[in-house]
Write a structure and sequence with these properties.
A hairpin with a 6-residue loop joins β18 and β19. Among the domains are: about 270 residues, Sandwich (lipopolysaccharide transport protein A fold); about 120 residues, no CATH class. The two termini are about 60 Å apart. The strands form four sheets. It has a 31-stranded antiparallel beta sheet that branches. Strands 1, 2, 5, 6, 7, 8, 9, 10, 11, 12, 13, 14, 15 and 16 form a 14-stranded antiparallel beta sheet that branches. Strands 3-4 form a two-stranded antiparallel sheet. It is mainly beta. It is about 5% helix and about 55% strand.
């Protein structure tokens, strides 16, 4: 048969389905399925938006991008308010039938389906298609205007504008070549979109060597929406590997508004949430030396699935080269984190502290482990070279501005009826203003054991503790010089009685303590103390149901009567103060027999507490909308036990202690607590706070007032307030009425769109020398490529709800900003 006779014109809309090249010999003739063109053309391919700028073929991003009001409801609900639009969900894979046919394990093993309005097929040789060309092999789908397929070579050329859609990606271009044997797809003048991370761009030439890889020549990559290159990475060669979650690029420049601002000869970057070794974005801001700023270039080491590290060298103007490092290790038992910082010669510190070395360091290590069977382990160790390290240099250590750095490690056990905790602990005191006699004792060791058991209708409990206290007291005298051991045991027998309408719990306990002291000058150091304690706690529960604004609610009335008696020795000031302090009097303290924390004092008392609580609960949501509590202690005898003069009482009644918590909305909480003396009509202390956040956490606000009579009165206000959908004001102000001055501020602006954000914050805080230190915090975040600067942690510490707000800001694929 001559070649002329082997050509045949096929009618319009006739599809042809045949095996890939070489498949006939290896797999035999496959069953053919004829499909009409309409059956294999989804609506989303027949209604594509045209490019707005030149009227030509749409880019990959323009095909899948939609304005906010045209997105599916599920996508629109997750889209941040500062995004005007977003990308449609990926339609690759099985969602639209792009699944592998039965028996095929890869795209290249699947048969090729081809269709067009006009087709000419030369049997066993080549196929030419024209008009609405559609070619599919496995999960790969390519559309164009013309196509020529060489069946012998398994190669195909497509003229565009062409569109190729696969699982999680979309490609467009002027023309393309496709190898059905290898799956290699080459596209000229290409654009691309990775639907999941919202990464899009263009390229002079794009190759798809496999269904998870993309190679880009002279290309651009960004997460900004179509036709808006607020920022972009431009490179001569870009390789994206979706299987590994990694992208690499050569001869790279970062452009902002099409203006180059930085160059890298080579970079490697993540394209999803998986960890990747490489440089993180530089961080910069002002230093607190008053001489300039700092610049750091962190490098992340993804060493293994179970451990990694981050090294952060940074240059601080006026101080020199400062390096921080963090290592994390995750075992089958738990996680360990080690952070260190080091500077060899801090020029500014050496100048300000003559005679001191400029070599400075800091260390913080934590570990948590679970061994099973109720056993856990823990460890915390912090140390710094000098008292000013944290305020001068620290950027990564979690200890921040503390006065006592903890070093503690131990093991815990807990089950339904008993618990055990044994640890060693010590501290480093880093304040120049704390005298030696007020520094905390090391506990070497501290062992705590507790148990509970039912004995018929009774409940038996035991709390016990053994501690060996040590402190270098060589320069102290009197009780402050003592060290020693303390054993304390508190057995209790109680009769708990509970019903729906209330409860009653009488109990009897014995608080026994024994000391073995060293360097004790008031006796031989062996001290025993036995204190019998009687408690009787009673409560009733009344409730009624009603409606307010058509919302059913339950209101409760809960009176409570509590009695406590403890026959403690009146004078216990011959016992050292190892770990004891006077408890702050609050509403919860109304129901405690001992007014001291720690084990070195047991308070004497004979008291009755009368309290009342009322709650309003929303019966639709179960939320507690309001709680009001008030109570007072009536002392039947004077209280003589003191902690070196503190804690005694000659008054017949305590101040009224109360608290009010209102939650009229899920986003609003009003809380107030305080102490009021009915005899003088004066408030002794109080704390009031209002916190508000909108449902999406864009609006945040807190108002607070703290008062302690004759010692403290502070007011604070904080807010994150959007001026527009993209611009927000951030601020906090703390004012001390006693000092008649501002003791802390935070003020700045935030701009956010759907592909980047910037925050500039000025912060001041009162130091130990009563001076306000100032610093400028700066942060840029580029969606998909991370950020620079370090401000979010400082704002989160200052403003309630800001951490949650940060988590929500970039939670969806990007769209047009």
């Amino acid at each position: 048969m001559s070649s002329a006779r082997r050509h045949a014109a096929l009618p319009a809309s006739s599809p042809i389905l045949f095996p890939a090249a070489g498949a006939m010999a290896s797999a035999g003739v496959r069953r053919l399925v004829l499909l009409s063109l309409a059956a294999v053309t989804p609506a989303w391919l027949m209604a594509q938006p045209a490019r707005a700028d030149d009227g030509g073929a749409p880019t990959a991003a323009e095909i899948d991008w939609r304005p906010r009001d045209q997105l599916p409801e599920a996508v629109r609900a997750k889209l941040p308010v500062f995004c005007e639009g977003g990308y449609l969900p990926s339609r690759g894979g099985t969602d639209d039938g792009l699944a592998l046919p039965g028996g095929a394990t890869s795209d290249t093993e699947a048969p090729i389906q081809a269709s067009g309005l006009n087709a000419r097929y030369e049997i066993d040789n080549q196929l030419r298609l024209e008009g609405d060309v559609r070619i599919r092999q496995g999960r790969l789908l390519v559309t164009g205007q013309e196509a020529l397929y060489d069946q012998n070579l398994g190669q195909m050329s497509v003229k565009g504008p062409m569109v190729s859609r696969g699982e999680g990606f979309l490609l467009t271009g002027r023309a393309a070549d496709y190898d059905a044997n290898t799956g290699l797809l080459d596209i000229d003048d290409a654009t691309y979109l990775l639907n999941g991370p919202g990464i899009r761009g263009n390229a002079a030439q794009l190759s798809r060597p496999s269904d998870t890889e993309v190679d880009i020549k002279e290309g651009l990559i960004t997460t900004c929406g179509p036709a808006r290159n607020d920022w972009a990475v431009v490179a001569s060669d870009i390789h994206l590997d979706r299987a590994e979650g990694v992208g690499t690029a050569k001869h790279v420049r970062l452009e902002v508004l099409d203006t180059p601002i930085f160059y890298w000869p080579y970079i490697s970057f993540p394209i999803d949430d998986r960890r990747k070794t490489g440089f993180l974005y530089p961080q910069f801001g002002t230093s607190n030396t008053g001489t300039g700023g700092f610049l750091s270039v962190p490098y992340y080491f993804n060493l293994a699935p179970e451990y990694d590290a981050t090294l952060t060298p940074q240059f601080i103007s006026g101080r020199g080269l400062f390096t921080e490092a963090e290592g994390r290790y995750l075992s089958r038992f738990g996680e360990t984190d080690l952070q260190v910082g080091y500077i060899d010669n801090d020029g500014y510190y050496a100048d300000e502290n003559p005679g001191e070395s400029g070599r400075r360091w800091g260390l913080d290590a934590t570990t948590r482990a679970s061994f099973g069977g109720g056993w856990t382990g823990y460890g915390d160790f912090s140390a710094v070279s000098d008292n000013d390290y944290l305020s001068d240099l620290n950027r990564s250590l979690n200890i921040n501005r503390e006065t006592h750095l903890l070093r503690q490690g131990g093991f815990r056990y807990r089950d339904a009826s008993q618990y055990f905790d044994g640890y060693l602990s010590d501290y480093q005191t880093i304040s120049d203003y704390i005298p030696d006699r007020n520094k905390p004792y090391a506990q070497l060791p501290n062992i705590t054991y507790g148990a509970t058991a039912d004995v018929g209708a009774f409940e038996a409990n035991l709390d016990s503790q053994y501690t060996n206290f040590y402190r270098d007291n060589s320069n102290l005298s009197g009780l402050d010089r003592a060290n020693g051991q303390r054993l304390r045991a508190v057995p209790e027998l109680a009769l708990p009685m509970r019903a729906l309408w209330g409860f009653s719990r009488p109990s009897v306990s014995v608080d026994y303590t024994r000391y073995a002291l060293e360097d004790y000058t008031l006796g031989d150091g062996n001290i025993d103390r036995t204190v019998p304690v009687v408690e009787w706690d009673n409560g009733l529960y009344f409730d009624r149901r009603s409606e307010l604004f058509d919302i059913p609610y339950n209101q409760s009335l809960e009176p409570r009567l509590y009695y406590a008696w403890a026959n403690a020795p009146a004078d216990q000031n011959d016992i050292p103060d190892f770990d004891t302090s006077l408890r702050s009097f609050r509403f919860d303290q109304l129901f405690e027999p001992n007014r001291f924390s720690g084990g070195d004092r047991v308070g004497d008392t004979n008291q009755v507490t009368v309290a009342l609580t009322s709650r309003i609960n929303d019966l639709v949501t179960g939320a507690e909308r309001a709680r009001v509590s008030v109570g007072q202690v009536h002392y039947l005898e004077e209280q003589d036990v003191t902690l070196f003069g503190q804690g005694g009482n000659r008054e017949p009644n305590s101040p009224l202690a109360g608290e009010v918590v209102l939650n009229p909305l899920d986003t609003l909480e009003i809380r107030s607590s305080g102490l009021w003396d009915p005899d003088t009509g004066q408030t002794q202390e109080g704390r009031s706070e209002l916190t508000f956040h909108s449902e999406d956490y864009r609006y945040l606000a807190t108002l607070g007032h703290t008062y302690r009579r004759d010692s403290l009165e502070q007011s604070d206000i904080a807010t994150v307030f959007p001026i527009t959908d993209r611009v927000s004001v951030i601020g906090r102000w703390v004012y001390d009425s006693q000092l008649d001055r501002t003791v802390g501020t935070l003020a700045g602006l935030e701009y956010t769109n759907c592909c980047w954000s910037v925050q500039v914050i000025q912060q001041s805080y009162l130091t130990s020398d009563r001076q306000l230190d100032n610093q400028i915090l700066f942060q840029i975040q580029l969606k998909g490529l991370g950020g620079s600067g370090g401000v979010s942690t400082d704002i989160s510490d200052a403003i309630y709800g800001y951490e949650e707000r940060e988590k929500r800001r970039f939670g969806t694929p990007s769209g047009t900003p």
